[in-house]
C-alpha cells in the first residue's frame, strides 16, 4: 500500500515541501488536482515533481468540468491541461469524477471522447455540494462504469455518504465494491454520520470507522497482483503540510 498526499495545482507554495517530504519517505506519491489555467504553458512550475511518483486528479464540477456537459472547449481543456500535465510528469493515473447527471447513454458517449488508459473513475456521494444528483454513487452505476472498461477509484468518504443516502449499511456497501469491482486506488477522509454531503475532516475528527477501513485494506494484502494506492484527502493545516503528515501517521498507528 502506497500512501499519497493530495495538493492542488494552485498550492505552489507547497510544491517544494511536498516533493521534499516524498523523497524523505513521509509518503510515497503525490496526487495533483488540476485547477483550470493554473499550469497551462507554465510547466516549469511543476517540473520539480519529475522523478516523484504522481497521479493527476481531473478538474470537476467545482471548477466547471462535468462529463455530462462535455463540449469542444472542455475537450480541449482536458487534452491540453490534464493529459499533457500527466504526460509531462509521467503520472501513472488520471482520476476522474463522473460528476452530475443521470443518462447512462450521455455518460457513455462523452467518456469515450476522453478515454485514456490511465483514467480511474471515482465513486460519488448521491447528493452533491449544491444538492445536484451525482452519477456513480450506486453499485449498479459503478458496475456500469466498470463495464465500460474503467477501474474504480474507491473514495471511502463518498461511499459512506452514498450509503447514508441509500439508507444501507456502508460497510457492506464498501465490501461489495471491493469484492466485485476490485479497486486498487483509494481516497480516505473522515466525516459526520448525520450529513449526506461530502466532507474532508481529519481522520481522528469524525464518525467514520477508520480502523475498520484500515483492517479492510489490510485484508487485500496477498489477494491482488497490483500495487494499491491510498490518497489522504484530509484538511491542510496552517503550517504547510504538517497536518497531512499528522493524519498519515495517525492512520499508520491504528
Low-confidence stretches: none
Specify the CATH architecture. Alpha-Beta Barrel
CATH homologous superfamily heading: Divalent-metal-dependent TIM barrel enzymes
Q: Total number of β-strand segments?
A: 8
What multimeric state do the chains show? Answer: single chain
The portion of residues forming beta strands comes to 5-15%
Question: How many helices in DSSP terms?
Answer: 8
* Cross-sheet strand order for the largest sheet: 1-2-3-4-5-6-7-8
> What kind of sheet is the major sheet?
8 strands, parallel, barrel
Separation of the first and last Cα atoms = 15 Å
Describe it for me?
The chain has 254 residues and is α/β, with parallel strands linked by helices. It has a single domain, classed as TIM Barrel. Helix content is 36%, strand content 15%. The protein has helices at 15-24, 72-89, 104-113, 139-147, 156-166, 170-181, 210-218, 242-253, and strands spanning 2-8, 29-33, 54-57, 93-96, 119-122, 151-155, 185-188, 229-232. The chain is globular and about 45 Å long. The two termini are 15 Å apart.
